[in-house]
Amino acid sequence: MSTQELPANHAELMDGVYRWQRHIYDLTRKYYLLGRDRLIAGLDVPAGGSVLELGCGTGRNLVLTARHYPDARLYGLDISAEMLDSAQAAIVRDGIAGRAVLARADATDFDPQALFGVAHFDRVFVSYSLSMIPSWEKTVAAGLAALAPGGSLHVVDFGQQEKLPGWFRSLLQAWLRKFHVSPRESLHEVLESESAKAGASLSFERLYRGYAWLAIARR
C-alpha cells in the first residue's frame, strides 16, 4: 500500500472520525447510503478493465465490485489511514488482495502513476465521499483526468431531498453535520462544467425523490 503527501488537517480529522466508527461503518451506513449498489451494477467494466474508487473507505464497494466483475483490476485510495486498515482487511478476507491495490492519498490531488503504476482507468467512481471532501470540485476534475479514453466517472452522493418533506431534510442534514457531511447543492452544475471541460457527456438522475443523486460522465 503506497502513500502520498497529504493535507494534515483533513487527514487527521478523518482519522479521528473513523478511528472507532470504521468498525461499525458498513453495518450502520447500509440503511442510508442509498444508490451505492446501483452505481456498482452500472459500472459495466470491460473485460480485464481497471477500476479506481476515490475515497474507498472500508473497502466495501471494492469488494462488491470485485464480485460483479471477476476479472477487473481494482484500485482504491483514501485519506484516512484508519479506513484503509479496514479496507485492507476486507480485501484480504474476501480473497481479492491479488487484484486490489490500496493507497493513502488525497482525492483532490493525486498521481495515479506514482501511487499505482497506472496512468488511467476504465472506470473511476466516488460513492458518498464528495460530501465529505472540502475541495470536492477538485476531486471531480481529478477523477475525469484519470479516465482512459472511453472511460467513465460514476458518482453517487446525497442529493437535496427536493421532493421529500422539509422536516425530513432538516433532520437528515443536522444528523449528517455531526459527521462532517455536507450534501453538495451545486453537484449537478459542477459535474456539467467539469464534464464539458473534459469532453465528456453527462447523465444525471435523482433517486428516491432526491434523497440521492447519481451521475455518470463518459469520455
From TrEMBL:
GO BP terms, alphabetized: methylation
Record carries keyword Amino-acid biosynthesis: no
SUPFAM superfamilies: S-adenosyl-L-methionine-dependent methyltransferases
Annotated Methyltransferase domain residues: 51-151
Gene Ontology terms for molecular function: methyltransferase activity
InterPro entries linked: Methyltransf_25 (IPR041698), SAM-dependent_MTases_sf (IPR029063)
UniProt entry keywords in alphabetical sequence: Methyltransferase, Transferase
Protein name, UniProt field: Methyltransferase
Native source organism of the sequence: Mesorhizobium hungaricum
